[in-house]
Amino acid sequence: MVRPVSARESLIATLQELANEARSEHGDSWENVTLPAFLEAMAAWLRSYERAYTNTGRPIPDDPWEIMVAAVHAATMYE
Q1: What's the pLDDT at 2?
Q2: 3-class DSSP state of 16
Q3: What's the rounded Cα separation, in Å, for the pair 38 and 4?
Q4: Contact status, residue 18 vs residue 72, Cβ threshold 8 Å
Q5: d(CA 69, CA 43)
Q6: Confidence (pTM)
Q7: Under the phi-then-psi rule, with left for phi > 0, alpha for psi from -120 to 50, and beta for the rest, what region is 75?
Q8: Could you give the residue ranges of the DSSP H alpha helices within 5-79?
Q9: Chain-centre distance of CA 27, in angstroms?
Q10: CB 8 within 8 A of CB 53
Q11: What one-character-per-residue DSSP string does 53-65 give?
């Protein structure tokens, strides 16, 4: 039986994937390439993430791990 991937495991995998991407030639395609810019973008996205979901007709996740997965992805491009 295959165990489903938890949102926590998904966050860990996402962080590793983004770290690898940041080290590659694709890292410069991010809007927020410095750590301060990335963290500021993540904070800004987390302040209003509910709107990101409601504006696109998606339900707001209940799982905080799932929200963090979305936040780290958003921080690469959120302005």
Answers
A1: 58
A2: helix
A3: 30
A4: yes
A5: 13
A6: 0.84
A7: alpha
A8: 7-23, 35-47, 49-54, 64-75
A9: 15
A10: no
A11: HHTTTPPPPS-HH
